[in-house]
Give the backbone structure.
Amino acid sequence: MSTHTCCIYGVSMTSVPSTAPAPAPVKPPPAAERVYAHVKQAVLERHYEGGVLLTEGELAEAVGVSRTPVREALLRLEVEGLIRLYPKKGALVLPVSAQEIGDVVETRLLVEEHAVRKAVPAPPELLDRLAELLEQQRRQAETGDLAAVAATDRCFHATVVRAAGNQILERLYDQLRDRQLRMGVAVMHSHPDRIAKNITEHSEILRTLRTGDAEAAAEAVRRHVGSVRHLLRGEVR
């Protein structure tokens, strides 16, 4: 199962003497954690679409565990708002609602417009990081990995929010992560041309940050997030 993260750190390895003790075997994560990760990633990447009913037996077989850890994992996912449990029936993957789209976009605009203004004048390390993420997104788009593109897209925006230096806003923004990823993958599946437009709009945000024009940067963010909102609303049935 692939995972996508914002930051990747390189680690230089040194040679290990032959007398060094063998490393301890890596302990696999608990069964409930494996089920949780499997279902959550499948929901976020739309392998399990909204409206699909998942059964404990199917999930236990898919992950190779008993039903007890499946129940534990599903309870956790219900708390996070991704599924709804129905006794003796299974777990319904909750579709993205129009209300949820509106709430997420409104919150994103409040946080991101403020953050991009605060990020001006942008330090060189921020500009370099955004340029790196932009190039990474281009490479992922070429391979057609929509989940990776969505994760890097989200990371681009989170990097700007982090640069504002407000830890409370950063934590608030992090709470939107799962919803942003799910919505991002939904848009890219339904509108493949949106990937290229996202990259173009990210380039414009980076350009305005380089020029040091805070209001132009805020306007670029507003247009970008607003265009995604219109597309998402078209997907809600």
In short: The first helix runs from residue 31 to 44. The chain has a mean pLDDT of 86. The chain is about 65% helix and 5% strand.
